[in-house]
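Question (not urgent): is this output format expected?
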Amino acid sequence: MRIGDLSRRTGVHERLLRYYEEQGLLHPARRPSGYREYSDEDIDTVRRIRSLLAAGLNTSTIATILPCLRDDGDRLIPTCSDLLADLHRERERITQSITDLQTSLGALDRVIAAAPPDVTRRALATLDR
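Got this back:
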């Protein structure tokens, strides 16, 4: 199938599909005319990529772990022994990012709460515009 067909079947814009190829995530065959030729397996690969991106992984990490994953219905199953350790490290990194964001949010909330009522009222009025 051509890139437009893959885009329609996965809901992923053609530009992103080309980007995934540039990042080494997709490996379409090339027709003699130069057009990309995708297989039905590429549909599953794009879905795995999207799932991993939604989990907070970047494309370079995905390129490393993608060959070690398979689909099992609605979940991804690791198939390489080293992958689990990498996933645990990535989970720790994300957890630390969440903790850091919660700390920042708390600090921001304290600053906002310290504002005098008249300043708060004026600020809220500008948000409604």
